[in-house]
Structures are given as structure tokens and as C-alpha cells.
Amino acid sequence: MRYQRILATLLLFIFLASCVPSVVVNSEQPTSSAVSTITPTIEPSPSATSTIFVTATSTPRPRIKAGDDLGFLKGMNYVTFDSTNYGHPLSDLSLEALADTGTKWVSLNISGVQNNRSSTNIDEHFHEDKAVLHAINKIHALDMSIMMKMHVVFANDPSAWGGSLGEGFNASNWDTWFASYTELILYYAKMAEENGVEILCIGTELGKAQMQTEHFMGLVTEVRKVFSGPITYGADASAPATEWWDQVDYIGIDAYYTVTKKSSPSLEELEIGWQPIVANLEALSKKWNKPIIFAEVGFNAQEYSACNGGCGRNMETAELGRLDPQTQANAYQALYNVFRDKEWFQGTFWWMWGDNVYSGGMCDPQYTPKGKLAENVLRAEYGAAPATFRNPISLPVFDENKIVEFPIFTDQYGDVDPSGGWGIDVSRITSPVYKGTQALKFIVGGNGGFSAFLPPLDTSPYQWLEFYIYSEINTENSSFSVFVGDENWNVYYMNTLNHCNYLDNQSGLIGGQWNRILIPLEEIAADKRVLNNLAFGNLSPKSAIFRVDEVRFVGLIDETLPAPTPIFFPDSSYTITETIYEDQLNQNWNNYPPHGDPANIQFDQSDIAVTGNAMKVKLLNFYPIDLHNDMVDWKKSQWLEFDLYVEPDKLPDVYGLKVFMRDAAYKSSPIKIDLMRSQFIEGGKIQPGTWQHVQIPLDVFGSSLGDYVMISIERPGHGSETPLMVYVDNVILRGK
Fold first, then answer.
1. pLDDT at 10 over 70
2. Interhelix angle for 325-339 vs 373-382, to 10°?
3. If you write DSSP's letter for every residue of 628-693 in order, what string do you get?
4. Residues 197, 188 contacting (CB under 8 angstroms)
5. What is the per-residue pLDDT across 672-720, written as a single tens digit (0 to 9) for each?
6. d(CA 194, CA 129)
7. pLDDT tens-place string over residues 145-186
8. At what angle do helices 89-100 and 129-141 cross, to 10 degrees?
9. 554 three-class SS
10. For 347-404, what is each residue's pLDDT tens digit?
11. What letter does residue 602 receive in the DSSP assignment?
């Protein structure tokens, strides 16, 4: 049931996809070798064969068989709400942080997607195979075992959850749906077997479907043919009514019980509240002669967290009262105190640990224990050292003379288009404002949001996203979220504004005033990728009103760093030379767009040149020098070389001069070399008023050089339209 949040995310992705230009997509869908015997009607995510991604560890992991005694499972549910993030660098860091807690079992949550609760077909796999296999290998490399846990989510049915699936189904409908569901489960069962996954959970909280005893017995029979490890299923409160527990190895329970309805209960009150639940679970275990595990169990960090869904409040959106990390910690401790010595109970998979290593924290009311008092309860039980957690801190204040910035919305910059949203009304207002004369007012519907589209923005100069937000009321549980999208329209991490470290000495938004938000950019774009949009969203099903002002990316100019040591090799080491420009442009190359528009290029300027003529270029923001050759053979060359002169009086207004490659579709290489401070420019950084030599190894631009047809030199912008005059001479490709 905790997985409902993915529904809003799916809708968000659908919206973003509808906003992008049409692109040509490779129609081939390579299938994992783990599932090569299946003729799929479900569309798997694009991936390479799974064997490519199997990474042998130094010590082969022993195979676990059904019926093996695995002891007490020290587990955690590991979750992403993005199809590719299991393969993202931040996910790797988050798994490393999870391993540090002493966790030994990871429930890797995997989803199939169908249209709505009445659909009889599962249409696609939500998670990209490559990302899933990467996560499997990473978890095993960290010496943790895996339970792969299957879910069903709905693309166009936001209020649905697994238990509502099959409303109005007749026998024929169930036959059709189970045929599709069996295909989904066998796909991942074979992947799990091939890649050493230890346990398979064949479903989660499917309510009506789990009452289809014959269908589930048939499913288990088919799974046993391809998967040799233990099998379980995650049932909700309907577990006692399930009639096929004898078919699996563990009775799996998603244990969101109402332990007590008291506010901020004591440890003793929680232990007492568990007693009738324990008695019922023990009876269930004895009836089927099967051990019980909690495939999911969790408590959020609020005063009524032990009530879960029994107090008429929405636990999915953290509406269980005021922030209360101590009650969450007490609930963790009470569960261990009650269940630790029960012979029929064999472990917990807590809900949940997210794929973003920066999630959680003492101001987060959601279910994750990360960065909260409950994490130390977990660590003590799992045999790890305690961690230290940070409470609200003071945010750094910037010296405006020592920063670079890229404004998204100010009075002077940022033409915000109200059409860039979904379920939202955006307007410019004159009061209240934080600075200047205008701010933005967002009236955001449930699961609505707004996207500000950017020019392709290289984020390498920046360390923070900063903005100011105004709410009418105090809130410690803001559902307002921030996320970014890259140039390939991949959406990166959604961070809500209830993280202590984003706020200035406060644990929530203070109503009736402007609140400064400062998010480290590494938490939403860790690898400094090129961004195409910045979005604000409302993760709650309820509408909300926010005002936002002075949105910008910020980077510090570090004057204390020494200049990088340049790397140069003598010209005598080269045996192949292709001159692109020396006094005049090589006829095999041309400038694109023609005549240098809008960069305003003159190719025959001789006032400032190393020898003869040089290119004189008036650069505005984001306008490049593009040297184009459809027939260039990059295999013959290893280095790009040129001379550069920058007018001294304009450089203070510039924070970047980038060199990169482009393909025929004008798509940039993943790496852009910034000559402001680089080992590839003579002197280690741009020195205005003098000619400097630049030598860049071509392989730094990426492995797909054969795709590129242009060399580009670009001045990124930050709102100023002041032109920068640069001169370029002796542009040469060299090889050996």
C-alpha cells in the first residue's frame, strides 16, 4: 500500500513526455537472456542482455534453496520511483549507506504497469532491466542478499492500489489477467535465478487477486520450475483469509497494523498494543506450519505513526500529526522487543530506504528511518555502530561578488510560461514578493506541478539551487517537491522541502513569511549533467498554494584553488595533422550556422592574430563557434589544438568558455571542457589579454566520437547580454 506514491510519479512522467519534441527511438527491445524462453506480450524496458551486467564478486555467493533455514532476516525495502534510478550513481551511494546500517537483506521492489484497476493486461515493465541488474550486482557486491518483490501499479488510475485490482472481474477476466501476471512474474523469476537473487516475493497486497486460490497455486507451480530459491507473498490484513500459504516458503505480511491510537505512545504502550496482533499471527503460522516474515512493516516519524491507517488520517501522505521522530524510534524498538524471540517469526523488511542517498533526515515525517532516531534502533538490532544525526542548521550566506549564478526567475530574467504545468494555475503577483516587484503564485492541484524549461544548461559551475517560498500556514510536512530533467528528458531526484538542511534553523516552512530554500545541487543532479528543466511539484493528492521568488542556481568562485597543471606534448610526437583554420577556413570545414550568425564570426581578422589572420568572434550567451565537417574521420586524430585570445575588459562578466562536440542533430557531447580553469589551457586558466595555447585529448569528450560532426566553443550565459570578444587561431587536429 505504501507504493501508491508511484502513481503520481507515473502521471508526472507521462506529462513531461508529452512536453518534449518528437524524437527517433530505437524500436528494438533487446530481451534479457534470463527470459529468452518467454514470448512476451508485456513490453519489457529496453536493456542489453542480462549476462552483460552480471559482475562476479571475489567470493561466489552460495545458492539458497527453498526450505533452507535463513535465520532472522535483517531486511529493508529498497525503492525507486523512477524507471532508471536503480542504475544511478546516487542509488549506489544510497545502497552503500544502507549496508553501513548492518542490513543484510534488501527487498528490491519491482513493478509491472497496467492501465487501471479494471484492466486485464499488464502492459509493460516499469523498471529498466539494465538498472535492475545493476542494482542486483551492487547489492551483492555489498554482501547483502536480495528478495525481489513484485508490485502492480496503475498508469491511469491514481486512486487505485493492488487491493482494488479486479473490481467487477468475472472468471474469464481473471483467467486473462493471471495469464498476463504469470508472464510478468516468470520474466523476473528467470532473471532472479540467473543473477543469484535469493528470495522471490510473487506479489504485494493484491487483495481480490490473492483470493483466486487456484490461479495462485498454478502461478507458484510455474515459478518453481524456473526459480530454485524460497518463495513468499506480501499480504495485507487479508492474510488469514488466504488459502494457499502451504504453497510458499514464508507467510509474508505487510504489517501496517493499528498498534495503538494514542499520540506519541510510550514504548510500554506500544508493546501492549502488539499483543493481540502477535496472538493472531502466531495462530496463522501454526495453522499452515510456515514461518512468518514482515515483507513490509513501517512507521512514519509523526505522533500518530503507530496508528498507521486506523485513525482516519492518510498515512500515505504523512498526515499523522506533528513531526515526532521519537515515536518512530519507539515503534521500531517495540517491534523488536515483541518479536525478537518468537520462533515462528523470521525477520523484517522495513519500509523504506530510497534510492536518493540524501533523503530522510530529522525533519522528514515519511516512513524512511534514514537519518532519524529509528535508524539507530535499526543499527543496534542489526549489529552496526550508531550514527550521528544533524538537526536544523544555519544556511550559508553568499558574498554576491564571489558567486556565479543562473537565474530561473527574477524580475529581470526568466520568461516563465504558465503552459509549462499540469494541474496548476501559475500567475505573476506583485505582493507579497521577496525581492523586486514580482513573484510567482502557484495554486497546485493534487499531484500537480510546474516545469521551467531551460536552455541546455551545464551545471558544472554551480553547487546550489536557491529560491524563496511563501506559505500561508506553518508546515513541517511540505509536499512541495523539486526535481530536474536532463537533455534526454530523464527526470532526476525529487526532494521535498522537509529536509532540515534545506531550511535556515527551522524544521518546516514558517507561514506568513518568505522561507529561504538552499538545496545542494549534488542532491538533484549529482553528476553535474546538462539540464533542460527545473520543476516544482505537489506530491500530495490535496491542493496547495505556494509563492516562489528569486529562483537561481548558484556557484562559488573559489579564488584559493591553484590553477591546474597544463598537459602538453611536443608537436614532434604527431605524425598526422589536419588544419581546420590557419589564416583561412579549410574548405572541408564550414561554420554552422552559416556566417557565424548569431555569434558574428569574422574569419579574416588580422589586428589580433598569432600570425596572419585569426577568427574574430563576438559571443553572446549560449552562442557558439561551430566548425562543421560531415566527413571528418576522428579515428585519425587524438588531439584538438588551437590558440585563444580573450578581451580582458569583458571577462569579469563571464563564468565559462566551453569546448565540446556536437552531432548532426546538434546534440552535445556529455563532457564539456571549461577553459576558465583547465589543465588543457596554457597557464591552467584563461588569462585575458594574451594568446594561450589549448590542447585537448579527444577521448575526454566521450566514446562516441564517430557520431560527432562539429567542434564547438561556447560562452554559457547567466542573463547578461554583454557580448564577449574572443579570437581563435591555428585550429588543428593531430594524431599519431
1. no
2. 20
3. E-TT--GGG-SEEEEEEEE-TTTGGG----EEEEEETT-PBPS--EETTB-TTBTTSB--TTS-EE
4. no
5. 888 877 888 888 888 889 999 999 988 888 767 888 999 999 887 655 5
6. 13
7. 999 999 999 999 877 888 899 989 999 999 999 999 999 999
8. 30
9. strand
10. 999 999 999 888 888 888 889 999 999 999 999 999 999 998 877 778 888 888 778 7
11. E
User: What is the rounded distance in angstroms from the CA atom of residue 533 to the CA atom of residue 222?
Assistant: 45
pLDDT at 20: 37
β 614-619/724-735 pair status: antiparallel
Check residue 650 and report its DSSP letter: T
CA distance 81 to 360: 15
Q: Who's near 92: CB < 8 A, 6+ residues apart? A: 138
Pairing label, strands 639-646, 624-628: unpaired
321: alpha, beta or left? (left if phi > 0; alpha if psi -120 to 50): left
Angle at 702 between CA 701 and CA 708, to 5 degrees: 75
C-beta separation of 615 from 727 below 8 A: yes
Phi/psi for 87 (5° steps) reads: -105, 10
The domains found in the chain, sorted by start residue, are: 2-252+347-382 (3.20.20.80), 400-556 (2.60.120.430), 571-735 (2.60.120.430)
Strand order in the sheet with 590-591: 590-591, 624-628, 708-714, 658-663, 673-674
Extract the runs of DSSP E, i.e. beta strands, from 170-286.
199-204, 231-235, 251-254
Helix H, strand E, coil C: the string for 137-157 is HHHHHCCCEEEEEEEEEECCC
Cell numbers linked to 512: 506568513
Contact between 150 and 201 under an 8 Å Cβ cutoff? The reply is yes
C-alpha cell at 417: 510560461
The mean pLDDT of 6-18, rounded to a whole number, is 43
15: amino acid identity, one letter? F
Q: Report how far apart, in Å, the C-alpha atoms of 526 and of each of 321, 485, 519, 522, 529 are.
A: 33, 12, 12, 4, 8
pTM, whole model, 2 decimals?
Answer: 0.71
